[in-house]
Amino acid sequence: MKSIVLLSAHMQQLLFNLTLAIRSLNNNRLRLMLTISIIALGLWALIGILTCIEVLKASVSSNFSRMGANSFQITNEVIKRNRRGRPTELKLIKYDEARLFAQQYTFPNTLVGLSMRGSMIAIARYESQKTNPNIMTMGVDENYLTISDTKLELGRNFTPDELTSGTPVCIIGNGITKKLFKNKPKQAIDQVISIGDIKYRIVGVAATKGGSMIMNADNLVLIPLQNARNTYGNRRSLVVSVMVKHATQKSVAAEEAEGLFRRIRKIPLGDDANFAVVQNDGLTQDLFEIIKYIGLAALVIGIITLVGSVIGLMNIMLVSVAERTREIGISKALGARSSTIKSQFLTESILISLLGGMLGIALGLLTGNLLGLLFDTGFIIPWLWITIGVALCAMVGIISGLFPAIKASKLDPIQALRYE
Q1: CB atoms < 10 A from the CB of 313, how many?
Q2: CA of 206: how far to CAs of 202, 222, 338, in Å?
Q3: How many C-beta neighbours within 10 Å does residue 86 have?
């Protein structure tokens, strides 16, 4: 019973302190807005950058999962360093080398696919409709859809005859369907579109896959590999993709693939390879490691800004103590204890800090998720960092208000009443 009475008394005191704090803040709205803005700026920077980082993580995971967790690539499109840490020049992967690898690679339960990037800024046209110059074209073989986990909403894959002869047919992404055929994929099949100066007949429409930080898969046009070689020339590097049945086999399969490709290129034993074998999960971890350091830098920036917020809020609270000196003197003359005065000013400081924190968190979430709209990753809420942000705001309020609150509680009531 006694504990319930004490709890009720504490609640009444808290409500009384909140009422006084709100009344005081309402009397100084301009100062309140400036103080809240200082604190919100720090949380805005912190939560905004960290939300962007979570968006980038989601985008990286989404992008590399498209090539499948059980796959790896042989490519020249990444930076590789030799044993001394210096960049190694990677040679273009020629068509003959890639075909020879596909014929000789005999690791059990694997699927090998060849692909070649065409244009990154193509424009697709159908009748009077056309896309923005952000269409990516890729030459692929019959295994690309399986290895990249690309599902077809309508239509079919390329036939062996189309692949061999380089027939001008294509499979288009869902985003292109929305633009050229008003989101009616059934109307797209067997229609002829122009990619640059070349006309292609549509044989398939890919299901929606969304965008990533590297490319938007819905703005992708797939064409037969031989057609891509005829259109864009033979001096473009190919990418060899290998999918294994079980993820546990991937490391061994990648080592065997590297050994075979070294033999195809006649690279002497002990020399650095002039190509790269990229495992998606390993590259993802490397990118996450870089993103982690960006996050630490963002945390430092946010903390520095919050330190400035502490100084600004403390100055505001000291001004508030000076302005309300007579009020404090009257309260003490009427019997208010020093602990009551102290709790009143601490409550006001914490309330200001939390209001600024909530504004900063809201702005940070909105800013960070603008990047999410670009990469189509959905709305991301970094709950851990929001919790840390709220805790930091409470600490800012306590630290900033503690010294002014102690100063106010120690004022002599007679001297305070004389203050002008």
Answers
A1: 25
A2: 11, 10, 72
A3: 8
How far apart, in Å, are the Cα atoms of 348 and each of 12, 33, 356? 16, 14, 12
Per-residue pLDDT band for 339 (boundaries 50, 70, 90) equals: confident
Do 375 and 212 form a contact (C-beta atoms < 8 A)? yes
Distance CA 289, CA 295 (A): 10
Amino acid at 134: N
pLDDT reported for residue 69:
60
For the chain, the average pLDDT equals 79
Chain mean position to CA 182: 30
pTM over 0.90: no
Under DSSP, is residue 202 helix (H, G, I), strand (E, B) or coil?
A: strand
Furthest-apart CA pair in the chain: how many Å? 101
Q: What three-state secondary structure class fits 215?
A: coil
- Residue 213 — very low, low, confident or very high, per pLDDT cuts 50/70/90? very low
Q: Where are the beta strands (DSSP E) in 54-178?
A: 71-75, 80-81, 87-88, 110-117, 124-126, 129-130, 136-140, 152-155, 169-172
Count of CB atoms situated within 10 Å of the CB of 192:
13
Total Cβ atoms within 10 A of residue 168: 17
Q: What is the mean pLDDT of residues 157-163?
A: 94
Residue 81 predicted with pLDDT over 60: no
Closest CA to 239 of 210, 273, 277, 209: 277
First to last CA, the chain: 47
| 372 or 384, higher pLDDT | 384
Quote the crossing angle between the two packed helices 280-323 and 383-409, to the nearest 10°: 20
Mean pLDDT of 357-386: 78
Residue type, 78: V
Using an 8 Å Cβ cutoff, are 136 and 55 in contact? no
Give yes or no for residue 212 having a pLDDT over 70. Answer: no
Is 198:150 a contact under the CB 8 Å cutoff?
no
Q: What is the DSSP letter of 67?
A: T
Q: How far, in Å, CA of 50 to CA of 46, rounded?
A: 6
